[in-house]
Backbone:
């Protein structure tokens, strides 16, 4: 007999999964899962007909009402559902694919009255950081460079980033993004405060001492609520063992948090991107330069990524990094068709080397977008988000693409997701405010602008010379009607650079919001002369809305075709 999914008095269980329709929640090993509404609706369809083949069209009709939705959308939702349930398509425990026809729930389903089942329901984790989350919240802080040489800073940062990257592959963990965790680099900050700001319950901290071919890495995992060490270790090894050390740390964290991994998840954290230590070193240097977001360092990033690839042509992360660097140069620094071609080639190589890499799919999405293939780009980002919901670049960059396409409602949702992944990063808040502006949601826009300014001023407290924080803040001040502050900050950003197109473009946004149209267009023309090349963003940027009817602005857009 089929379960009565419409009854609020019945809960269902299969394997380590429990579904509670009355509470509208799904649990795995007692921990509540985050599911998209459509994924939850599909799961209820399976519970309504366990063991039966449910055809593609039937699911599309029942869940989407056959609105403009393709089988690819259904496939993505099924993949997300499998990932959350800890299932695998190749060896299904729960959801079986019947190729060309549909899907069926193959696990035995037990139904019980909700009141009876409540007695056996596992208790929520003890401390408050898990209160509203189904996943363990963890932040990986930048490792302290103990080498005595500032030059080695990239290496200690890179070790922490690589461990963070491994952990983001596990849906059971809510991993604070690099941007948020690294905000506290070099600051004297209480762990309780850090955990509260990042909304996590555990923190990994460590140090790195590198000397010649030797490396000494210490790490400890701290439960913030109890101020106790869950795990700690010191590794004194040769440099070539650095990959094994990272894997061991990731596995030790999983063990300490008592996270159950599927075979696929276990393979994910044991994956070694490259066996070549020098290639790895070049990659870390490239990533350091990439994050600087300026002309000179973007060229250095390309050089470092290419050196890494020359040593290890199968290094997928280096190929993805190279693609991203060329995308950034084309969009913001040096508009050039050759950069598009190189980004396409590099992103394709990244996917060939590691088709399960969320980073590779996100890189491919960016490359496709600058190649004027937006729909294909969207599909790549959907895949990236499915493979790694914790990947900031996945939701944030996808949001920027949606903004460029004028799909501000979806962009706002993606920016909101980015603010959850990276709560101390001001960029998602800035772009969220712009999306709200285009949607006419003035109150929401104002709140987002205020929150963005709080984060921007905090960033400037750590680095007063941060030009990007200045020009982003200037535009927000302008939108809030604080003209004097807006002009002051825009001019400070302009004085910091004579040849960075991003500075001129974003300063132009401030003056456009202030209705100083000629000044704004002068700055935009200078940005384009210096290499700004993202026409789609310029055409849909809400900060430039007052310029859209100006002939000079339209001529400038035409020049970017």
Residues:
């Amino acid at each position: 007999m089929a379960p009565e999914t419409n009854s609020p008095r019945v809960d269902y269980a299969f394997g380590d999964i429990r579904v509670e329709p009355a509470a509208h929640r799904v649990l795995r090993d007692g921990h509540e899962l985050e599911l998209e509404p459509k994924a939850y609706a599909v799961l209820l369809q399976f519970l309504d007909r366990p063991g039966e083949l449910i055809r593609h069209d039937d699911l599309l009709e029942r869940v989407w009402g056959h609105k403009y939705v393709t089988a690819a959308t259904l496939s993505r939702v099924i993949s997300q559902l499998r990932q959350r349930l800890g299932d695998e398509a190749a060896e299904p425990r729960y959801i079986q694919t019947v190729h060309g026809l549909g899907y069926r729930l193959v696990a035995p389903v037990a139904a019980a009255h909700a009141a009876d089942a409540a007695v056996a329901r596992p208790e929520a984790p003890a401390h408050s950081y898990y209160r509203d989350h189904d996943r363990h919240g963890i932040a990986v802080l930048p490792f302290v460079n103990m080498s005595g040489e500032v030059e080695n800073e990239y290496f200690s940062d890179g070790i922490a980033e690589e461990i963070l990257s491994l952990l983001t592959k596990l849906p059971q963990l809510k991993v604070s993004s690099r941007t948020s965790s690294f905000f506290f680099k070099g600051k004297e900050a209480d762990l309780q405060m850090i955990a509260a700001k990042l909304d996590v319950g555990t923190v990994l901290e460590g140090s790195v001492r590198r000397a010649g071919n030797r490396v000494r890495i210490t790490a400890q995992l701290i439960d913030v609520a109890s101020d106790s060490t869950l795990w700690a270790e010191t590794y004194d090894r040769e440099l070539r063992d650095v990959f094994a050390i990272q894997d061991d740390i990731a596995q030790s964290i999983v063990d300490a948090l008592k996270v159950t991994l599927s075979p696929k998840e276990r393979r994910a954290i044991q994956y070694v991107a490259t066996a070549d230590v020098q290639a790895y070193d070049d990659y870390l240097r490239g990533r350091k330069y990439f994050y600087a977001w300026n002309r000179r360092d973007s060229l250095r990033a390309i050089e470092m990524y290419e050196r890494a690839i020359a040593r290890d042509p199968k290094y997928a992360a280096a190929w993805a990094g190279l693609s991203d660097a060329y995308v950034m140069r084309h969009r913001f620094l040096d508009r050039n068709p050759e950069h598009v071609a190189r980004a396409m080639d590099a992103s394709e190589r990244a996917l060939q080397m590691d088709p399960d890499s969320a980073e590779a799919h996100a890189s491919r999405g960016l490359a496709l977008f600058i190649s004027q293939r937006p729909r294909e780009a969207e599909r790549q980002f959907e895949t990236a988000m499915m493979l790694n919901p914790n990947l900031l670049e996945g939701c944030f960059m996808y949001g920027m693409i949606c903004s460029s396409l004028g799909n501000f409602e979806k962009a706002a949702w993606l920016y909101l997701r980015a603010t959850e992944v990276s709560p101390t990063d001001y960029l998602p808040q800035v772009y969220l405010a712009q999306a709200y502006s285009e949607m006419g949601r003035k109150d929401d826009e104002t709140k987002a602008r205020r929150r963005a300014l709080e984060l921007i001023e905090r960033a400037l407290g750590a680095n007063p010379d941060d030009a990007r924080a200045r020009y982003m803040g200037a535009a927000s001040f302008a939108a809030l009607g604080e003209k004097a502050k807006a002009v002051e900050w825009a001019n400070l950003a302009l004085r910091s650079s004579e040849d960075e197109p991003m500075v001129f473009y974003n300063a132009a946004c401030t003056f456009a919001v202030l209705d100083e149209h000629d000044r704004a267009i002068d700055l935009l023309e200078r940005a384009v002369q210096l290499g700004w090349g993202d026409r789609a963003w310029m055409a849909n940027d809400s900060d430039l809305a007052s310029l859209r009817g100006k002939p000079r602005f339209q001529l400038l857009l035409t020049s970017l075709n």
Notes: The longest helix spans residues 442-462.
